[in-house]
Amino acid sequence: MIQLEHIAWQAPGGFSLKNISLVIPTGTYAVLMGSTGCGKTSLLEILCGLRPPTAGRILLNDRDVTHLEPRHRRIGYLPQDLALFLSKNVREQIGFAPFLQADPEAASLVTSLATELGIHHLLDRQPDYLSGGEKQRVALARALAARPSVLLLDEPLSALDEATHAEAAELLKNLQTRHRLTVLHVTHSRREAELLGQMRLRLEKGQICPEN
């Protein structure tokens, strides 16, 4: 479950998020829409712990994580630019979190996720030699390797061509079900929202409202 209680945040010289309260039930695939620059990415970063809110509380599965470091929140985050490490191969990308946490099952987890996402044959390849769809799958595997209960996706399908888009959307639905994730997916696409969103929301003038 994702629960925001009266969250506020002010961008320097720009927009603000005002008194945002929201509950996304456990296991729900929620989609958040809104115009460019309205604060959707900032809201995801507040949830992740990359930006501190100026007011309010963040609860994940009934646990107050407002002041916890990102690594202690059990969140998987897929930023819009994917943020792959340029100097690491696919195996190292996926294994970043579990090896950092000295997870004894790190190696088998990397293999399992790579197989699940169809990128096992790419494990020794560098990011420069991956297609856009392959990079997306690597970034997803890396997010899932942290064993999250919550997955945050920032425009995850925006860089994909039409042929790859439908396949990637189906992959996200299947991953959410198999890993029992609560998902918050940011998009500009109404088609994506209708296809994936069990719960559809809009961020408008710094506040959350249901999407019609």
What would you say this structure looks like, in words?
The chain is of the alpha/beta class and 212 residues long. It contains seven helices and ten strands. The protein has helices at residues 40-48, 90-94, 96-100, 106-116, 132-144, 162-178, 190-196, and strands at 2-10, 16-24, 29-33, 55-60, 63-64, 75-78, 150-154, 182-186, 199-204, 207-210. Strands 6-7-8-3-9-10 form a six-stranded mixed β-sheet, with helices on both faces. Helix 6 (162-178) links the parallel strand 7 and strand 8 (182-186). It is globular, with a radius of gyration of 17 Å. Residues 2-212 form the ABC transporter domain. This is ABC transporter domain-containing protein. InterPro entries: AAA+_ATPase (IPR003593), ABC_SmlMolc_Importer (IPR050093), ABC_transporter-like_ATP-bd (IPR003439), ABC_transporter-like_CS (IPR017871), P-loop_NTPase (IPR027417). Keywords: ATP-binding, Nucleotide-binding, Transport.
Spell out the helices and strands N to C.
Answer: EEEHEEEHHHHEHEHEE
Termini separation comes to 23 Å
Which of globular, elongated, flat, extended, rod-shaped describes the shape?
globular
Q: Helicity range of the residues?
A: 25-40%
Q: What order do the strands of the largest sheet run in, or round the barrel if closed?
A: 6-7-8-3-9-10
What's the average pLDDT?
93
Category from helices, strands and their pairing: alpha/beta
State the helix count: 7
How is the biggest beta sheet arranged? 6 strands, mixed
The rounded Rg comes to 17 Å
What is the oligomeric state here? single chain
Strand content: 25-35%
Low-confidence stretches: none
Instruction: Please give the number of β-strands.
Output: 10
